[in-house]
Amino acid sequence: MLYPLTFETIFKDKIWGGQKIKTVLGKDFSPLPNCGETWEISGVAGNISVVAEGPLKGKSLQELLEQYKEELVGKHVYERFGNEFPLLVKFIDANDDLSIQVHPDDKLAKERHNSFGKTEMWYILEADQGATLNSGFNREVTKEEYVKAVADNTLMDILNIEKVEAGDVFFLPAGRVHYIGKGILLAEIQQTSDITYRIYDFDRTDDKGQKRELHTELAVDAINYQHYDHYKTQYDQQPNHSVNAVTSDYFVTNVLNFDQEVLHDYTHLDSFVILVCVGGSLTVETGEGYRIPLKMGQCALLPASTKQVTLVPDGDMTVLESYVP
């Protein structure tokens, strides 16, 4: 029988990684000196999540999907994605600026890589004073202007830079140029894809003196050059309410900020639900008697067959609730 699932953390060594995965999120079992990312729920080939607790401990997400199908993910989700889990959840610790990059959309990713594209969102858990990130351009830019800016090393002049603080949300559809700046710890929810076109990496070298590969030509046709008035997602943080932050074709994400017990009913959904704890701690309880404790930096996957859960906060808690619409 299915129940709310937690998974073993997958740790990723990154040239720009730091210590906050250990010190802030409490994942002090990380084997890496500079952990830049953890993958918490993943169906990406070569990085498939494995169940951490309960009767299904040791089973991979892929095995569960093949065995339980729509009972795990929902009828319409299984019809749409088959035995491919559609979302990937990460935590990212930027101890230095990440590369300036872009991700292709579904059409381009299918043509070039036989993969899904990558639309994603960020929720800022913590940001050092003055920390910034890039989302999109600061004015209308033509393809020709962009190519010239890359060649002239003036790309930074046309990027939209945003100051950030804890609780900020950014939605990044495929095609949007972006980078995460130094001093930011965030949660990322995205399509299941590992396709990234690196445009500029600040001339960094690794421990062997090698620069990382760039994909400047591949990026040109993947970019959406349109300028937008607002890049930061506007949402009302209301205590003891579920507030919608992102609605897209690939995922819906609500922000739950509660200090009192709440019953969540998912009878109307035909999808799994992912809970990502981004502040405080809580216990997820089901009618069948399962109790899953979660603290900041931990996630749970509620199967589509789980129709009701009670969230019991330990003081204040903030949780991202995501599902496939």
UniProtKB/TrEMBL annotation:
Cofactor binding mode and count: Binds 1 zinc ion per subunit.
SUPFAM superfamilies with a match to the protein in the record: RmlC-like cupins
Domain Mannose-6-phosphate isomerase cupin: 244-322
Alphabetized InterPro entries for the sequence: Carb_Metab_Reg_Kinase/Isom, Man6P_isomerase_Firm_short, MPI_cupin_dom, PMI_typeI_cat, RmlC-like_jellyroll, RmlC_Cupin_sf
One Pfam family, short name: PMI_typeI_cat
Gene3D superfamilies per the UniProt record, alphabetical: Jelly Rolls
Cofactor: Zn(2+)
Name of the featured protein: Phosphohexomutase
Record lineage: Bacteria, Pseudomonadati, Bacteroidota, Cytophagia, Cytophagales
